[in-house]
Amino acid sequence: YLCQVLRAKDELAAIVAAKLADGYVPMDAVTEPVKCAAVFYYGWDMNGTSHKEWADVRLVPGLTDRPAVLPKRARTRGYHLLGGHVLAKVA
After folding, report:
1. Does the pLDDT of residue 15 top 90, yes or no?
2. Which of 13, 32, 60, 78 is the most exposed place for a label (fewest CB within 10 A)?
3. Model-level pTM?
């Protein structure tokens, strides 16, 4: 099990490096709504290896200092990003 977690961490590190090279920037806090072409959210689980991606979204201030995601055509149903890290490709 430990080897699986370590391999998953290495794979996630490679994905994050590719996202940063593709123009994504860290957005762990926002003070006003930001239109984004894509948002990559990762590292919120116990092992820190989970990730999720949304296309064409808005990052808005959440209930805490962390942002929330509002997907296109679903502006009434968003997602609070309570842990982990957020990378955004600003539109």
Report:
1. yes
2. 32
3. 0.87
